[in-house]
């Protein structure tokens, strides 16, 4: 239903095409940005079940307001409904998926890696089955309904499902809340900013819980984000050239002198000190920023598909023969089915790959490449459609839109599955389950880029699709998508070729190796010291004994002479 929101705005509300697209993109962008906030509240404060109850209630009331709005055409009801739907959608996917995984775990047992993978596979299977079943029911039951009837039936169906869910509350597994790694990352950055005046450590002992006895810098070194500044030291009046590789985060682990009580106790309690391991986890998360930035333009194409592609279907011959009509929801099915199948195939190849890093990066590159092809194909179809409408006064078949929806599905299936798999190879264990939330966040930023693009190229948009120049807009999108593809290739090559020391296991191994080397060196030094002391002691004893013996001999010879 919400996929066709732009059709309701342009048809029933008579909103102009660019304004309707902006409303939809702001709604979807805010939804994506709120996902990470809802995940934080769910894990650290309220628990998943309470968030599910709250967000689903908000979603149902949002549908009810859409039903009321479609009947009364109230602009206040429309924006109130969109606000509630934004909150409801933000807590729908992420919280429900995590809650479903909780129910599949055995109570009182900590699953190992193999059992966790099995739980995740079962969770994906159940989710996809329910998703496809819902789309099929929507196609059969709601495909040819008017917006008011569609809002009414959707509200009833959602409320009925929610009331079926409620009786099981006493029997559901309730996971305890825990400190979220997202909040930990924020606190580490905050502590580093507060201690920005401190100098970088010159000794390993200056870093809190630093198990490497020789390193004064915390890995990983994010060389791709290296920025060099020429700083001027006012005290020494000399110029310093300091490479900044997000090393400023290391300051969160620097011990500050404290005369009143033990250093670590005071600073940990005040949130000014974090151990080296936590700083390292945050730096691994930040190392994902270059790759996430390539998804802004990707999301721009996705936002275009969710608005202008569906609106094009309203201006195309949707008849199949003389009687039946092809509902727009068919394209939702095509796009979702293509994305799901692509993701499943990629997962199958992933399980048979020996390299954990390169295949996900290749998938992301292919996904970005398909975004270029999608814009080019959409431009060609729109040129052909406008020619048929303006020159031949005839409409093309609705199936002309099928290729661009297939390409969007391929783009999403490759890029999103690749990003999630690569995210799991980069971050620490506690961060791995937050991959979808961070992906949604970057996707939300891309949706707002779409709003900006519509404002910049407003001269290509008019009241509706026929009077607008979507073909020029699609052609324009091929330029940023191509540049983004090139940038993605550069970034992914950097990730693929970065040293193995960037990984968590290798960092720990390096620290262990350094620690063992330092311990061995210390033991060797202590051994030499003991040997030298023993030799010195033996030498002194022998000298004393010899001197005593010589003294006694001399005295005896003196007695004999007398």
Describe this structure in words.
There is one protein chain. With 562 residues, the chain is mainly alpha-helical. The chain is built from 18 helices and 4 strands. The strands form 2 sheets. It has a two-stranded antiparallel sheet with strand order 1-2. The protein has a two-stranded antiparallel sheet with strand order 3-4. Helix 2 crosses helix 4 and helix 3 (48-72) runs antiparallel to helix 5. It is globular and about 80 Å long. Residues 226-244, 500-506, 514-524 and 558-562 have low confidence and may be disordered.
Please tally the helical runs, counting DSSP H or I stretches of 4 or more residues. Answer: 18
Beta-strand proportion: under 5%
Mean pLDDT: 80
Structural class: mainly alpha
Percent helix: 55-70%
Could you list the spans in which at least 5 consecutive residues all have pLDDT below 50?
226-244, 500-506, 514-524, 558-562
Report, as a whole number of angstroms, the end-to-end distance: 128 Å
Q: What is the N-to-C order of secondary-structure elements (H for helix, E for strand)? A: HHHHHHHHEEHHHHEEHHHHHH
Instruction: Going across the biggest sheet, name each strand in turn.
Output: 1-2
Count of extended strands: 4
Shape: globular
* Radius of gyration using CA atoms only: 33 Å
Largest sheet at a glance?
2 strands, antiparallel
């Amino acid at each position: 239903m919400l996929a066709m929101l732009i059709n309701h705005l342009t048809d029933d509300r008579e909103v102009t095409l660019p304004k309707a697209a902006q409303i939809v993109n702001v709604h979807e962008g805010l939804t994506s940005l709120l996902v990470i906030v809802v995940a934080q509240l769910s894990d650290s404060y309220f628990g998943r079940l309470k968030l599910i109850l709250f967000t689903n209630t908000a979603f149902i009331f949002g549908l009810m307001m859409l039903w009321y709005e479609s009947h009364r055409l109230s602009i206040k009801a429309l924006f109130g409904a969109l606000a509630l739907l934004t909150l409801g959608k933000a807590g729908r996917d992420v919280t429900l998926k995590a809650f479903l995984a909780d129910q599949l775990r055995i109570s009182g047992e900590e699953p190992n890696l193999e059992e966790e993978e099995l739980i995740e596979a079962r969770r994906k299977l159940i989710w996809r089955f329910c998703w496809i079943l819902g789309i099929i029911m929507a196609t059969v039951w709601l495909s040819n309904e008017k917006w008011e009837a569609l809002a009414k039936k959707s509200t009833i169906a959602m409320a009925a499902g929610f009331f079926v869910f409620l009786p099981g509350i006493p029997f559901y597994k309730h996971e305890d809340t825990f400190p979220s790694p997202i909040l930990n990352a924020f606190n580490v950055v905050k502590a580093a900013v507060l201690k920005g005046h401190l100098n970088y450590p010159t000794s390993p002992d200056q870093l809190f819980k630093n198990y490497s006895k020789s390193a004064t810098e915390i890995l990983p070194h994010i060389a791709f984000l290296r920025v060099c500044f020429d700083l001027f030291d006012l005290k020494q009046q000399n110029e310093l050239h300091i490479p900044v590789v997000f090393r400023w985060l290391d300051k969160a682990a620097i011990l500050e002198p404290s005369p009143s009580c033990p250093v670590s106790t005071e600073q940990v309690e005040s949130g000014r000190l974090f151990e080296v391991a936590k700083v390292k986890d945050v730096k691994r998360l930040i190392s994902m920023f270059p790759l996430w930035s390539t998804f802004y333009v990707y999301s721009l194409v996705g936002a275009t598909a969710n608005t202008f592609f569906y609106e094009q279907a309203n201006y195309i011959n949707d008849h199949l023969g003389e009687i039946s009509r092809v509902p727009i929801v068919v394209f939702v099915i095509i796009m979702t089915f293509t994305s799901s199948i692509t993701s499943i195939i990629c997962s199958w190849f992933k399980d048979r790959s020996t390299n954990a890093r390169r295949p996900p990066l290749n998938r992301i590159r292919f996904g970005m490449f398909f975004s270029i092809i999608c814009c080019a194909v959409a431009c060609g179809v729109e040129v052909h459609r406008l020619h048929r409408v303006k020159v031949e006064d005839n409409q093309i078949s609705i199936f002309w839109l099928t290729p661009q929806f297939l390409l969007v599905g391929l783009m999403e299936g490759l890029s999103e599955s690749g990003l999630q798999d690569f995210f799991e190879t980069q971050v620490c264990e506690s961060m791995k389950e937050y991959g979808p939330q961070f992906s949604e966040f970057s996707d939300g930023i891309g949706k707002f880029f779409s709003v900006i693009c519509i404002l910049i190229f407003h001269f290509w948009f008019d009241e509706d699709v026929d009077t607008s120049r979507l073909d020029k807009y699609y052609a324009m999108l091929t330029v940023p998508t191509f540049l983004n593809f090139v940038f993605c290739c550069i970034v992914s090559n950097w990730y693929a070729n970065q040293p193995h020391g960037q990984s968590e296991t290798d960092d720990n191994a390096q620290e262990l190796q350094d620690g063992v080397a330092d311990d061995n060196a210390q033991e060797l030094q202590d051994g030499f010291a003991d040997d030298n002391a023993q030799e010195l002691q033996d030498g002194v004893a022998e000298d004393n004994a010899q001197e005593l013996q010589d003294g006694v001999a001399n005295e005896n010879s003196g007695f004999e002479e007398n």
